[in-house]
Amino acid sequence: xxxxxxxxxxxxxxxxxxxxxxxxxxxxxxxxxxxxxxxxxxxxxxxxxxxxxxxxxxxxxxxxxxxxxxxxxxxxxxxxxxxxxxxxxxxxxxxxxxxxxxxxxxxxxxxxxxxxxxxxxxxxxxxxxxxxxxxxxxxxxxxxxxxxxxxxxxxxxxxxxxxxxxxxxxxxxxxxxxxxxxxxxxxxxxxxxxxxxxxxxxxxxxxxxxxxxxxxxxxxxxxxxxxxxxxxxxxxxxxxxxxxxxxxxxxxxxxxxxxxxxxxxxxxxxxxxxxxxxxxxxxxxxxxxxxxxxxxxxxxxxxxxxxxxxxxxxxxxxxxxxxxxxxxxxxxxxxxxxxxxxxxxxxxxxxxxxxxxxxxxxxxxxxxxxxxxxxxxxxxxxxxxxxxxxxxxxxxxxxxxxxxxxxxxxxxxxxxxxxxxxxxxxxxxxxxxxxxxxxxxxxxxxxxxxxxxxxxxxx
Amino acid sequence: xxxxxxxxxxxxxxxxxxxxxxxxxxxxxxxxxxxxxxxxxxxxxxxxxxxxxxxxxxxxxxxxxxxxxxxxxxxxxxxxxxxxxxxxxxxxxxxxxxxxxxxxxxxxxxxxxxxxxxxxxxxxxxxxxxxxxxxxxxxxxxxxxxxxxxxxxxxxxxxxxxxxxxxxxxxxxxxxxxxxxxxxxxxxxxxxxxxxxxxxxxxxxxxxxxxxxxxxxxxxxxxxxxxxxxxxxxxxxxxxxxxxxxxxxxxxxxxxxxxxxxxxxxxxxxxxxxxxxxxxxxxxxxxxxxxxxxxxxxxxxxxxxxxxxxxxxxxxxxxxxxxxxxxxxxxxxxxxxxxxxxxxxxxxxxxxxxxxxxxxxxxxxxxxxxxxxxxxxxxxxxxxxxxxxxxxxxxxxxxxxxxxxxxxxxxxxxxxxxxxxxxxxxxxxxxxxxxxxxxxxxxxxxxxxxxxxxxxxxxxxxxxxxxxxxxxxxxxxxxxxxxxxx
Lengths: 459, 486
Fold this sequence. Notes:
Chain A is an alpha+beta fold.
């Protein structure tokens, strides 16, 4: 696939230069399969094989983009697409800032994170994984839902200012398994993100599901008063918070458009907990990293929060051009967000449940349907789901009714009391467009104090 | 190509499949234009071609899709093999409800195809909007157009043969202002209509439909920037259509998708608090609430001629005078639901199965989920009968419980109502509640004059994920004793 894509892109590049078109190309191929479970059966088993070519043509400070979902043999269509992109650019309206369009620096083959064994997983192996992960846990009332998604992407990028081709490929898998009670409508979930075959360990998923399932079978949901609580967030829940943080926190474009709670005055100020250090770290294979961005800029570890100090906004190319900033290598489909571990020796759900506590605290493994209430105040809201717990001061563990948190990210990240020593990958990929795997690498548990619970619903 | 596809369908049927269908997209095109602060930031056009195959073997679904139609046999074989694997884990074999396979064609009503309009004309339109929004109170201004045209050929092993051409158009404008303390506020407007007529470039050529909203939007933003904070208390909320649609969408529409009720979305979008025994019994809302799924509305993104099971679109009641009657259904789920309930709840498929693209499988999707107009008069009439309330407009954010049992909405603007009079603007209004008590607090429904059909371009659901177009034709509605401001 690599050689075929590179060869094709070279041909298209040469053709574009022949007809005096200035353009950049993004050729994306994906092979995806997704097995979906519902009501303890495979409700859908899918596979897809998709090729897409995106061409952005430039005429000074005017640009136009034309994309084609096609196949690798349709060269004539692709050449026509180059002309179409150029026509779009010609008719376009120039922006009032200078667009950076420079040669890609050097050839790159970024495929060392491609795991052939993971990519070649058979359907039988995937089914075997799921069966092991839920062995003995399903019943007439307890049914399985979830997904096992796996696949690979192959991307080649080029532009007409040089012969350089950037190539990136990665294989990935995402498992999310839910056990639900058909009558009482509660759900518990566990999953794994895999950048290599070794990351798939169904016994770990089984352990977590079993604990949560037994707790939910043995306990009825309890009411919780509104107010402030200390909450331990699991890695998936904390990843959700960080996902929104990237939009309304440190994104430079959003900052300039008055859509962030972080401002220039916060730079190099300690506004978060000193326990919190967050980086964009493309050396972390668990995050399906890009070694270079789409403009060929090598990606290095980029500090975002350092011991509670806000270090920098990120600038992808177009925002950097518009606002006169220096681009930071963030013209990528996904960052590699990594949170430094803490010192807390709580590294499994079982250990968390046994942890001594001097008051009742809550556990949120996931946050459902989070959204931004006010970006400039950093206020978010979301509900508990998939196995929230009340960890009583007495040592008992109970199930809460459905809880809603509404609080500001500034408050939440300023009140991080501890982070666990061990970390896990939280897969945040979605399949709304092209396959582009995405995961954060962060502590398995993070305790945040004084979080506002604003609504409680009995189901 | 049709003959080749039909031959492959037959081949897979001969291998032992119970059912086979194919969605071939000879051409699907979209165009997106975004003006941001005077700059044309997006000027994107996309064309896709591809085919998606669905196969039922041993009561289980397999699906395969490819952007290359050069090797149809391979795509069909992949779908078949996927189904065979799926059939190893079946608890309730899929049984499709009866229907008569038909040959038909459909084209959505469009006078001027936006994709054929010169780009310069479209850019000039957006520039005009941008210039009108460029006013003192406005720190950031966005204006956005999206055009979509799909050609779809549906063929199946029962002999259905349906060709569709669907045009869609979406337009949005947003203005953002900044208070002295750095907090941002916004006002937005989305293109909509009344469900009649056509939707194409002509929709934007009527200034009242879109362009003439700019002055009002900027004026209201100025008012919000200078406004007091929304109070925190309980009072009547009067929802205008550009928030009423979302209220309907999130906690009626999604809650009544039968696949959600049956547990098919638990690992992603969530379930529903609704149970099969609730149909015909549950008092979902007050007597003033009548909701229907109407995919026959002539002009809406939720009208599409025939669904992706090959069944003609329908118009039926979901909730009648507050009582839950029906769900949003497809061929598969009606059979399963009736079997599990041990009785016939659903007479037939509601023709709501749709896939967003060739590489996605059909799911139950909302069509046009509408609230019937009421007898409580105009917006002014409703205000006049409100002792303590707030009028709310615009959806700034929304967050819903996983079984659609509770919700939280933040709005763009509110106007307090006291003793039957509309008073001052307030900023940062929010409200929330539990679904059933909320709909049972519905105390007034506006008449036809208050209605708007709001287009929705981005309803997300399913794994693999897909975004769907649909509509909500809704009146102004008033709900009593609602918690606001939290």
